[in-house]
Amino acid sequence: MAKAYILIETEVGKTREAFTTLTAKKVKAIKSIDVVTGPYDIVVVVEHDDINSIGTLVTEEIHSIPGIARTVTCLGVRLTQ
Fold this sequence. Notes:
Layout: E1 2-10, H1 15-25, E2 30-35, E3 42-48, H2 51-62, E4 68-75
Antiparallel strand pairs: 1-3, 1-4, 2-3
């Protein structure tokens, strides 16, 4: 199982619309959606079978939402001892 944090920057005044659309999609892989302050507007946590599936989710489900300007995907890693 792969986990990723998707940092989303929205167009000015479009954060609420993008958040509402993301929430309405009810994508099973999306574990949480939070509106945040700082350089990004929304942070989405996803878990999927593999990295390629996360890439497809970002490009097909998230980039297609009106008001989303750009994303940064940070993949979670597991440290072993």
